[in-house]
Amino acid sequence: MLETPCLVIDPDKLANNIHQMAETLRPYNVKLRPHTKTHKIPRIAKKQLNDGAVGITTAKVSEAEVMAQHGLSNIFIAYPIIGETKIERVQRLNRMTDLTIGVDSLMGAEKLSAMAEADQRPLQVRLEVDTGLKRTGIPYDQAVELAQVIHNLPALRLTGIYTFRGALLQGKPTLDLERAGIEEGNMMASLAKRIREQGVPIRDVSVGSTPTAAHAAKVDGVTEVRPGTYVFYDRMQAQLGVSSLDDCAASVLVTVVSRPSDDRIVIDGGSKTFATDVQPNTPPHHMTGFGHVVGYPDVVFERMTEEHGMLKVTPDHSFQVGDRLRIIPNHICSTVNLHNRIYLEKDHGEYEAWEVSARGHLS
């Protein structure tokens, strides 16, 4: 019997989610480069490649190192690489993989170029563009100028542009994912056209998260999408209408450890088990609580401490100490990073443990 709390995966739903995204994108002339930050597991990345992905995306150098150690060779690190030691690690990866990295500043680009020139091995880079999320990325109206400068640096090969925008429409959170995806795609395709007009022959226009990938892919000029959450889905994606709760391949198995009152049960999973980065009652999701309790839609996972989860119930619920529940977390990506392994359900109540190999690889 599994010890709780633990992260359990339905392998049929996992396989179906991987396949359905590939099939959805197949009619369009775009490449699928899934983001592995969601699962952090090379075996799942290989399943994605076997179902049509051209390569993978990571957020950090250390994630890319793990994936490369397990034989994945076409990698895009979608993050600015800053600092000499990280650049040295990137250079080592560049010798063993088909590597592309993100850049969003002149200072970062110049340092990359100087070290790559000394190494006598050019680096492929993509320019990150801020299209409204106000995270990393050169401001949209400055991208053409910076692209020209990077193109002229001696040891960098500017292959394209990319963005992460999420579910934004005209700068605001939205549930209109089709318009959001098309707007994102049009912004980047238009920018790529203006960069090419200035003599910079970029190839890649990379966009699209799980909510918007299928819609952004319809835009002429988009060449690649990078969804991640779709392998498992989560409550947030179900709330956005991207999936149903039944599509969610991952759930956290927990045990009721206390029922101190008629209206409250306590489970053995708290903030060290469930992600807390997607808060309840925030736009555009407006979810109640920190997760969906499978089979009990009226139960509210209302608060957590480190080791305890407090669920609001009604007196007519017959929960007892020792009962086991499954909870679909609000955000699966950050939840996975809290677990050393996942457990794939097998026949006859058996499970297969897979290591989350890139868990905690933050540098």
Automatic annotation (TrEMBL):
Molecular function terms from GO: D-serine ammonia-lyase activity
Domain D-serine dehydratase-like: 249-346
Gene3D superfamilies given in the database record: Alanine racemase, D-serine dehydratase-like domain
Record Pfam families: Ala_racemase_N, D-ser_dehydrat
Any one GO biological process: D-serine catabolic process
Transmembrane regions listed in the UniProt entry: none
Top-level taxon of the source organism: Bacteria
The entry's keywords: Lyase
Family: Belongs to the DSD1 family.
PANTHER family, per the entry: D-SERINE DEHYDRATASE (PTHR28004:SF2), ZGC:162816-RELATED (PTHR28004)
Protein name per Swiss-Prot or TrEMBL: D-serine deaminase, pyridoxal phosphate-dependent
